[in-house]
């Protein structure tokens, strides 16, 4: 039985002041704990991984290992993967030497399992770009999606930018087609509207060509906006925008058959923006509206809710015997948070309190 360091420490604290009789009682509850405790008390390390164990009866012999290597070194097989080698031996020589996984294992042990061919070696994706925000207009994410029309194969392009801290839709515009000019003008208008020119602002988007065009890059540089991008072919890095688009397209009044024209699509998006920003209580921001959060009005709203809960507990102390619901405003918002980050863990504990 294996124990983590935390489990060992808890058991050590439980047993150190105890008599051997107490140790015996605990040993009845925890299988193998007595021997483990004696070893820990002596300061010994776990040497089970260093023990000499007999080989399994089905283990390949050294001669069979070499035979597998000789087969892989044949001129006809030298450029083939084990999957091809095993099947060709079955078809052409009517014999079975070892499993496909054994071929891979033996080749790895001898340093002969490498990438082959002209294709580039796959590279690890690495960590996504992470952003921690403590105020509105510190980090935005944006996305472009298609809206259907009544004509089959014809779509309109919806541009949507959302604030990571407040979850407010900063802007939502519909065009007949996607273009570099539209990409640039939408971002320029929204920055001027929010009054955050030459302020530290991060604009996160996916890795599509529309988000990385030279026209847009020049506009972002002129507005002093720092671009941020998702990893290639990884939609999870822009989860806030992706989730927002899902909410948009699954509204009960979303016209699944398509919009009659561009004006109809624009009018529907205006109505959705009004509902989302000013009526929808967002679960990620303590169920206040994104507009209240963006304007800083959520503090008063949450304080009032807390007073109501405290008064309800005073009137019904037996019914509400535990702590009241946590209506503390969330002071920090994250885009692609690191679960191992101590700051993120501390914030999660405070929010769950």
UniProtKB/TrEMBL annotation:
Gene3D superfamilies, per the entry: Ribonuclease H-like superfamily/Ribonuclease H (3.30.420.10)
Cited InterPro entries: Integrase_cat-core, RNaseH-like_sf, RNaseH_sf, Transposase_IS3/IS150/IS904
Superkingdom to which the source organism belongs: Bacteria
Bias (Polar residues): 344-353
PROSITE patterns: INTEGRASE
Region (Disordered): 114-133, 329-353
Residues in Integrase catalytic domain copies: 132-298
Descriptive protein name: DDE-type integrase/transposase/recombinase
